[in-house]
């Protein structure tokens, strides 16, 4: 695990730039660094040593020394790949998984990515062909930014390492206001892109090509009876968990009171020879506190358990999120995520989590709502009429009032499934953004429809039902754009590695074809998962409603954050950007203070403005 960076140019690589970029990534790899300094290519990395601590330095090379790579991630099929390469006569100089990349490239070329099972972002330089290959894992667990500019290419694990002008990309901002994160391939910085999950990029002689190598196939598949499928799920979960315990550094787990992390801890206890180390964040507010259910799981398995009550300072929490995240990021659960990562880092270097359980098995309330709404099919003409009537009510109603709620219901019923789902994911919809923008910005973005991203995800899905397509859309949008960004940034900020058993692509491909009645039954989400792990877990864990990490945003914005949010969003600096109409922002603030709930929208605007201000700092250490 590490942070990687590089600069490729036919005119000559800038090796000092590469070193400065790696200096900005030291939190991702405090255990060492390494560089390749070629005429055309400069590659660099910062290492967090987990596999082959003594001998796993990078960059890595093939036997001839003409293929060089830097690698960020973990390969969970490392033993099988290593045995295969040795059987073919390759000479391996270490016991690290990163070294396999160059040898697999010799045998399979760009298709080596299809052989990898794990999380990764890597850069490989083929000196003979003068060609760069960048790759990102199937689901987007490991980040990779790049800039293709005037025939040269710069890349890095984090945007903060990129030495580029911090000019805002208005299209990225437009999508951020809807989803509260910046979706790939956009980045908030003009001219910088994210390599999308499941894609590779090649550069040769100043020309760049990006192509997809994997997409989850959610086609319906034949299934057995429930007992048989539950047994198969237990087998898969034990296998993917066992693979994620590899390494030479201490391993633990984030344990909330929810089903997914509890299932992972139960699996760890079954395949580990030592007590599992578990970590839980608790809150004084009972709406967010899950210490009781977490302790029940810890007691059942005799884990080495630590829980902590945090009473986060609102001001410090806002500053921490703005400092750690390179792009505006408005998922407030980043606050407790950063806290549990910091506390865990005092005891372990690797943590397993339950990320992906909701996406594999339909665990969100919106999945349940989509399944229910799917029974209410409205013909085209009538649907358009309902949608128009609902939009009219929304435009005339105030937030929280009955007319506005009725308008949302009518508009949702009148929309096709993809638009229904986009609405459930939306912070600012198109009309709200158009009203908020200055006339100039509104005109420049009038053609850009953020909901089309969900349309595209639904259209690309091979799932046979609306619920299946909604789950598939989550996996291609919300999962890599929000959840995996939060997990990566929160853990790497404190130099620990997060591993997610549910996000093993073998398990996900198996789960993707499940029928709806194995996902949701009698109003209960994640039916098959609950059935499969019922023998492993306390009854209270199985019955626990989903909470997720949360903070009392609405109250904070009226109390401890009141002065900060008002001053930040209404001062001359914010008003002079020419993006939003200041009087509308001020009205939203006043309405929230008077009791209407604009917390999510205000938090989204606050994180954007704080990003603007942080972007005024130097991009890399100088």
UniProtKB/TrEMBL annotation:
The active site is at residue 2. It catalyses: L-aspartate + L-glutamine + ATP + H2O = L-asparagine + L-glutamate + AMP + diphosphate + H(+). GO terms for molecular function: asparagine synthase (glutamine-hydrolyzing) activity; ATP binding. One of its GO terms (biological process) is asparagine biosynthetic process. It comes from the Bacteria. Residues 2-206 form the Glutamine amidotransferase type-2 domain. ATP binds at residue 281. Pathway: Amino-acid biosynthesis; L-asparagine biosynthesis; L-asparagine from L-aspartate (L-Gln route): step 1/1. SUPFAM superfamilies: Adenine nucleotide alpha hydrolases-like (SSF52402), N-terminal nucleophile aminohydrolases (Ntn hydrolases) (SSF56235). The record marks 355 as: Important for beta-aspartyl-AMP intermediate formation. Its EC number is 6.3.5.4. GO terms for cellular component: cytosol. L-glutamine binds at residue 97. Keywords: Amino-acid biosynthesis, Asparagine biosynthesis, ATP-binding, Glutamine amidotransferase, Nucleotide-binding. Belongs to the asparagine synthetase family. This is asparagine synthase (glutamine-hydrolyzing). It comes from Acrocarpospora macrocephala. The gene is asnB_2.
């Amino acid at each position: 695990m590490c942070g990687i960076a590089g600069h490729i140019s036919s005119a000559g690589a800038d090796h000092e730039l590469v070193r400065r970029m790696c200096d900005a990534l030291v939190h991702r790899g405090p255990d060492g660094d390494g560089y390749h300094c070629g005429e055309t290519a400069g590659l660099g990395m910062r290492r967090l040593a987990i596999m082959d601590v003594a001998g796993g330095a990078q960059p890595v090379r093939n036997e001839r020394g003409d293929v060089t790579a830097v690698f960020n991630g973990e390969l969970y099929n490392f033993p099988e790949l290593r045995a295969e390469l040795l059987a073919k006569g390759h000479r391996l100089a270490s016991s690290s998984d990163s070294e396999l990349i160059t040898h697999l490239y010799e045998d399979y070329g760009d298709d080596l990515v299809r052989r990898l099972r794990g999380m990764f972002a890597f850069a490989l330089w083929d000196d003979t062909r003068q060609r760069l290959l960048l790759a990102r894992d199937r689901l987007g667990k490991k980040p990779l930014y790049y800039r293709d500019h005037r025939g040269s290419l710069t890349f890095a694990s984090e945007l903060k390492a990129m030495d580029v002008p911090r000019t805002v990309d208005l299209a990225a901002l437009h999508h951020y206001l809807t989803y509260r994160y910046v979706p790939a391939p956009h980045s908030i910085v003009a001219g910088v892109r994210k390599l999308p999950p499941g894609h590779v990029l090649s550069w040769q002689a100043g020309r760049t090509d990006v192509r997809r190598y994997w997409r989850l196939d959610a086609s319906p598949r034949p299934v057995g009876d429930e007992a048989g499928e539950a047994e198969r799920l237990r087998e898969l979960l034990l296998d993917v968990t066992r693979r994620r315990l590899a390494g030479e550094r201490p391993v633990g787990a984030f344990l909330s009171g929810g089903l997914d992390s509890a299932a992972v801890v139960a699996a760890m206890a079954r395949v580990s020879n030592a007590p599992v180390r578990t970590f839980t964040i608790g809150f004084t507010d009972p709406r967010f506190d899950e210490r009781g259910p977490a302790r029940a799981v810890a007691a059942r398995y005799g884990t080495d358990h630590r829980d902590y009550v945090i009473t986060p300072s609102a001001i410090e929490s806002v500053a921490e999120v703005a400092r750690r995240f390179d792009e505006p990021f408005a998922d407030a659960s980043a606050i407790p995520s950063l806290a549990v990562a910091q506390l865990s880092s005092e005891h372990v270097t690797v943590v397993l989590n339950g990320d992906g359980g909701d996406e594999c098995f339909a665990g969100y309330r919106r999945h349940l709502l989509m399944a229910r709404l799917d029974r209410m099919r409205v013909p085209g003409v009538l649907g358009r009429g309902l949608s128009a009537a609902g939009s009219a009510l929304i435009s005339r109603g105030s937030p929280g009032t009955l007319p506005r709620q009725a308008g949302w219901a009518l508009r949702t019923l009148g929309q096709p499934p993809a638009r229904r789902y986009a609405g459930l994911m939306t912070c600012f919809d198109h009309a709200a953004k158009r009203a908020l923008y200055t006339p100039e910005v509104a005109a420049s973005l009038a053609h850009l429809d953020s909901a089309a991203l969900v349309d595209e995800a639904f259209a690309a899905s091979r799932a046979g039902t609306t619920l299946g397509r909604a789950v598939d859309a989550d996996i291609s949008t919300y999962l890599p754009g929000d959840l995996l960004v939060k997990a990566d940034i929160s853990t790497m900020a404190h130099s620990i590695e997060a591993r997610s058993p549910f996000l093993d692509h073998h398990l996900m491909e198996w789960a993707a074809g499940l029928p709806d009645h194995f996902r949701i039954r009698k109003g209960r989400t994640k039916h098959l998962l609950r059935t499969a792990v019922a023998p492993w877990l306390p009854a209270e864990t199985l019955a626990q409603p989903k909470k997720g990490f949360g903070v009392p945003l609405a109250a904070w914005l009226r109390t401890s954050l009141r002065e900060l949010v008002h001053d930040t969003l209404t001062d001359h600096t914010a008003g002079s950007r020419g993006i939003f109409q200041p009087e509308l922002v001020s009205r939203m603030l006043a309405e929230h203070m008077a009791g209407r709930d604009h917390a999510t929208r205000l938090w989204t605007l606050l994180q954007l403005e704080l990003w603007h201000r942080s972007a005024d700092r130097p991009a890399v250490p100088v």
